[in-house]
Amino acid sequence: MSDPRINDRIRVPEVRLVGPNGEQVGIVRVEDALRLAAEADLDLVEVAPMAKPPVAKLMDFGKYKYEAAMKAREARKNQVNTVIKEIKLRPKIDAHDYGTKKGHVERFLSAGDKVKVTIMFRGREQSRPELGFRLLQRLAEDVAELGFVESAPKQDGRNMIMVLGPTKKKSEARAQQRRKKEQRDAEQVERVEETEQVEQEA
Hints:
By secondary structure, the protein is an alpha/beta fold. Among the domains are: 7-60, Ubiquitin-like (UB roll), CATH 3.10.20; 84-166, Translation Initiation Factor IF3 (2-Layer Sandwich). Helices cover 45% and strands 26% of the residues. The chain is built from 5 helices and 8 strands. The strands form 2 sheets. Strands 2-1-4-3 form a 4-stranded mixed beta sheet. A hairpin with a 5-residue loop joins strand 1 (14-18) and strand 2 (24-29). It is flat.
């Protein structure tokens, strides 16, 4: 987004002027608006260039830009990119494989990501959709502390798909990971100091 025109870059004969506190001043000649801006030690900023006449506001443009940048940064920080991770299972999965896949699902959910779980049916398995359904239900129950069923199991051609959403927001997950890391770092420093102390005493 390009910056609005300010002060003498506003090349129109007149503007609809808005005061610094949002009060309507009315339609004034641009020279008068610039004079008012100079007297108030403010900038004249064109806020609606397409209006007839354009709307200009008296404001501290530097401060306005700074606040707008801070707002945008805050919005970016809060707008977390939810990633959808995918895990594929077979209806007749063995216990060891199931444990591994469940571990992946838990890791994704605790990081605040969604998980799309796909059961792939082959051959005769297609006539036994209940196997896939039961497996997905079991998985949802096993990871219930970390995630919830956002989209219930449904058949999609040869596959059955379920989406799990994290119970924790990504921003919370990140904050928690940061806290854990800080704690680990602190413990490490403590251990090093203890080792040094023991060596000195020896």
